[in-house]
Amino acid sequence: MIELLPLLALLGAAPDPSAATTAAAGPTEVVDRLAALVDGEVVTLSEIEERGAAELRRASVLPPGKARDEAHDLALRRAFDQIVSEKLLAKQAKALQLEVTEGQIDAAIADIKNRNHFDDAQLDRALSEQGLERSAFRAQIRRELETYQVLQAKVR
Questions:
Q1: What is the radius of gyration, based on Cα positions, of the chain?
Q2: Could you count the other beta carbons within 10 Å of the beta carbon of residue 37?
């Protein structure tokens, strides 16, 4: 089940009761905003912004106005949709007792490097150009392999 909180929270509206606070930050300082609950798992605004960072950067260079605002909103929506899909697929993977190993991730990365004729430094440069660090890339590969395993299990 997905519970969506007001879209205004996603778009940076004034603080609302769903805003997360911490004792260290003080009771009135907004630390993050709760965007949704997916089967009881929290999706925060910062998680959505992090996922859509590359697309949000592209939107931010557009001239101020309607096109920029629409590109920004679309980037947030796409990132949100990806996160929700991944959380639901991860739940399916757990229910089906599917697991992606580090060896599978290493093999997938080696295949990508081989197909593109990259060494480690070239891969890191290519990832950097896309706004990704190696750890984020590994996490992305893990999600893609997990998705593939779930789909494969469902087709069987």
A1: 18
A2: 16
Q: How far apart are CA 91 and CA 86, in angstroms?
A: 8
Collapsed DSSP state (helix, strand, coil) of residue 75: helix
Q: Which two tokens stand for residue 71?
A: 């590109």
- pTM score above 0.90: no
pLDDT in tens, 46-103: 989 988 888 898 999 999 999 999 999 999 999 999 999 888 888 888 888 988 999 9
Taking a C-beta distance cutoff of 8 angstroms, is the pair 105, 141 a contact? Answer: yes
29 has a pLDDT exceeding 50? yes
Q: For residues 95 and 103, give the distance between their C-alpha atoms in angstroms, rounded to a whole number.
A: 22
> Can you read off the two tokens belonging to residue 124?
């890191």
Look at residues 87, 56, 50, 53 and name the one whose alpha carbon lies nearest to residue 74: 56
Other beta carbons within 10 Å of 21: 14
Beta bridge partners of 37: 3, 42
